[in-house]
Structure formats: C-alpha cells, structure tokens
C-alpha cells in the first residue's frame, strides 16, 4: 500500500484538455476545475445521473499510470480493493463481491433467483432497466405503486409477498424519484421480508445523503444483498465498477455463477476505485456542489410553477403538468439530453443535476 502511495505522489497527469500539473496542485484543486473543456460544443448530458465533474484527481492519476499495466490481469489488486471496500462498509473481505458496475450484480441475483420459478416485487416507479431478463427467465414481475409523496410503499410490498416470491428490489434513494426510505422503517421491513425472500437494496445514490448504509446488516442476514457503485459519486460510470455486500455464504453462492469472480474488473478500473476511496476531499466537494446546484434548480423550477419532489440524490423528479411548451422539443433545440415521462398521471420526468453552468442553460432552455 505504501509503495502505491509513493508511486501516486511521483506521477503527473497529462491528459486531453489538461496540462501537466504536479500531483499536489492537481489533487488539491476544486472538483469544478475538471469539467471537460469542450462543454460548449458537446450535448449537455442530463439523462443518466452521471457525475459531471468526472473521476477524482487521484483516480485520474492512477488510471493514467495503470494503462501500461493493462497487459496483465489484476489478481494482485483485487484483494486491496476488496479490503478497502470492506472497511468502508464495516464488513469483512468475504462479504464483498466485485462486479462490472452494479448492473452485473443485478444480473447475478437475476440468475440466482431464476434457479427456481416464481416472482419478484418492486415499486412502480423505480429503476427498472434490468427487469426484462428476469421475465424472460420465467420470473413474474409484481409492481407496487409508490405512495402519494413518491416513496416506496413498504407495507404494500410486504403484503404482496407470497410463497413464490424470490426477491424484492428496493432502490434507496429511489431512481427516478430521489426519495428515501425512513431508516427504521426500512430496517423493520427487511427483517420481515427476508424471512420469505431475498431483499436487494440498491444504494447507488446513498453517498449523496447523510444516511448510513445498511451494509453491516448483511453480516447476520443471508437474505439481504446490498449493491453499490462507483458510477455516481465517484464519477466512474464508464469505468464500470460496482460491488455487492452480503453474508459470506451468499457471496459464495453468487460467486459460483461467475466463471471467474472479480475478474470482470479491469486493472484501470480497479486502481481508479482504490484511489477514489482515498479521496474523501473530492467526495465532499461533489456533495457540496451537487447540493448548491440542486437548490438553484429547484428554486428555478418552482418559479416556473413546476412541482419538484424533495431529492436525496443527484437528480430531480418534477411534474410537467403545468408546463405549456413542448418540454422535450425545448431540450432538443438547445442540445440537451434529458430522460422521458415516467408517470403519465402528472407527467413526471427526471433531470440529472449537472454543473451550475449546465443547469443554468437547462433553465434558460425551458423558460
């Protein structure tokens, strides 16, 4: 570990759009300094909840240096990353399984759940791009409407569990609504639901909150799986790295479904994740910037008489019911990529929180 730290300190980064900067100056600069320089020419991407500030300075340095080692497998790096992740989540190394983004973890749970036919339960509306393979493998999807304030109806989900239920999916904070489950209610829900099925809690956006992760609950509960990702807060969406936190016996069962557990993570992604976990300053900067820009955007949408849902994430869910123009045409005309209508009743849509400049352009586009 000390050798790697010394190696990082000796390295300078020369990348497209950035001049050669000594390590200390680069690492201590504000997150907004690393916004791509060609922003004015490129589409404004407000569709996928990505971090607009990119990877942390330490991650960029590590990734650049590690390219020359990409001809080798990362066997010696995985234990270091797993140990760092385990420490962050207050669990042991054998409670962690790496994946190429949290999507791969979802796919593994899909395969595991489909070993016997049945159903899976999730909210309507939530993150659902992964569900089609479940249904193709013979699992029936059951959806439970959100509450009036766009939160998970945990009571309704509990009532829907039957003898055929294999898994319950909870995205917390929820995508696309940005709402969060009250911690004690969620813990009580998990205690009851895991008596009958797996509960899969997706914490992709938990780092944007002050909420404590539920990962330590997995140690004693073999039917609870937590998934996390480096795609959002850490700005590594394109690097594809995520992980599962679960009881060691559950990790073993999921690992059996992979021909080579952990090997789907590249050397470049692995060192980026290790460096990211050591850059708490960058995380704090991103949180501060996200909160400031989100507050501005909510205020501006409110002035346009558009209802917003309070968000615990890096995106906003708002209603177009009172909007008189063609919202999506306005985005298209201004080279902005947004999302879609998620709920026809209320015409609810989602927008990612970009940089302040991006959100100012977004507001001007829809005025």
Q: Give the overall shape, derived from the CA principal axes.
A: globular
Helix content: 25-40%
Number of strands: 15
Q: Quote the beta fraction.
A: 15-25%
Distance between the termini: 52 Å
Report Rg.
21 Å
Largest sheet: 7 strands, mixed
SSE series? HEEHEHHEHEHEHEHEEEHHHEEHEEEH
Strand order in space, largest sheet: 4-10-9-8-7-5-6
Average residue pLDDT: 88
Going by helix content, strand content and strand pairing, the class is alpha/beta
Low-confidence region ranges: 1-27
Overall description:
By secondary structure, this protein is of the alpha/beta class. The model is unreliable at 1-27 (pLDDT under 50). 36% of the residues lie in helices and 18% in strands. The strands form 4 sheets. Strands 4-10-9-8-7-5-6 form a 7-stranded mixed β-sheet. Strands 11-12-15-14 form a 4-stranded antiparallel β-sheet, with helices on one face. It has helices at residues 2-10, 23-27, 57-66, 78-88, 102-113, 131-136, 154-160, 183-193, 248-255, 267-277, 280-303, 327-333, 356-366; strands spanning 13-15, 18-21, 44-45, 96-99, 119-124, 140-145, 165-171, 198-202, 224-229, 242-246, 308-309, 315-319, 336-337, 341-343, 348-352. Helix 3 (57-66) packs antiparallel against helix 10, helix 4 (78-88) runs parallel beside helix 10 (267-277) and helix 11 packs parallel to helix 13. A hairpin with a 4-residue loop joins strand 14 and strand 15 (348-352). It is globular and about 55 Å long. The chain has 13 helices and 15 strands.
Note the topology.
Elements: H1 2-10, E1 13-15, E2 18-21, H2 23-27, E3 44-45, H3 57-66, H4 78-88, E4 96-99, H5 102-113, E5 119-124, H6 131-136, E6 140-145, H7 154-160, E7 165-171, H8 183-193, E8 198-202, E9 224-229, E10 242-246, H9 248-255, H10 267-277, H11 280-303, E11 308-309, E12 315-319, H12 327-333, E13 336-337, E14 341-343, E15 348-352, H13 356-366
Parallel strand pairs: 3-13, 5-6, 5-7, 7-8, 8-9
Antiparallel strand pairs: 1-2, 4-10, 9-10, 11-12, 12-15, 14-15
Helix pairs in contact: 3-10, 4-10, 11-13
């Amino acid at each position: 570990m000390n050798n790697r730290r010394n190696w990082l300190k000796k390295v300078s980064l020369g990348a497209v759009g950035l001049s050669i900067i000594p390590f200390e100056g680069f690492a201590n600069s504000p997150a907004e300094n690393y916004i791509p320089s060609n922003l004015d020419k490129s589409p404004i991407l407000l569709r996928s909840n990505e971090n607009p500030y990119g990877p942390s300075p330490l991650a960029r340095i590590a990734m650049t240096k590690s390219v020359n080692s990409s001809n080798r497998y990362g066997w010696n790096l995985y234990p270091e990353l797993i140990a760092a992740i385990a420490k962050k989540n207050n669990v042991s190394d054998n409670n962690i399984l790496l994946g190429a983004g949290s999507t791969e973890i979802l796919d593994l749970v899909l395969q595991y759940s489909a070993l016997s036919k049945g159903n899976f339960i999730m909210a309507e509306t939530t993150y659902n791009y992964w569900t089609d393979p479940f249904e193709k493998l013979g699992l029936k999807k059951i959806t439970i409407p959100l509450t009036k304030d766009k939160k998970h109806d945990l009571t309704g989900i509990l009532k829907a569990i039957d003898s055929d239920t294999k898994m319950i999916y909870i995205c917390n904070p929820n995508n696309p609504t940005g709402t969060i489950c009250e911690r004690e209610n969620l813990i009580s829900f998990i205690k009851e639901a895991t008596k009958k099925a797996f509960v899969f809690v997706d914490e992709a956006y938990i780092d944007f909150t002050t909420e404590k992760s539920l990962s330590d609950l997995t140690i004693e509960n073999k039917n609870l799986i937590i998934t996390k990702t480096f795609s959002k807060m850490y700005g590594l969406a394109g690097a594809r790295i995520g992980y599962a936190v679960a009881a060691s016996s559950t990790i073993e069962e999921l690992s059996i479904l992979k021909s080579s557990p952990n090997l789907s993570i590249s050397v470049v992604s692995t060192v980026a994740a290790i460096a990211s976990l050591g850059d708490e300053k960058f995380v704090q900067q991103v949180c501060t910037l996200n909160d400031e820009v989100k507050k501005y955007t909510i205020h501006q949408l409110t002035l346009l008489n558009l209802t917003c849902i309070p968000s615990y994430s890096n995106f906003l869910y708002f209603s177009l019911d009172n909007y008189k123009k063609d919202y999506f045409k306005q985005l298209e005309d201004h080279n902005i990529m947004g999302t879609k209508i998620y709920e026809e009743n209320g015409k609810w849509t989602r927008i990612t929180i970009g940089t302040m400049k991006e959100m100012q352009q977004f507001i001007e586009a829809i005025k």
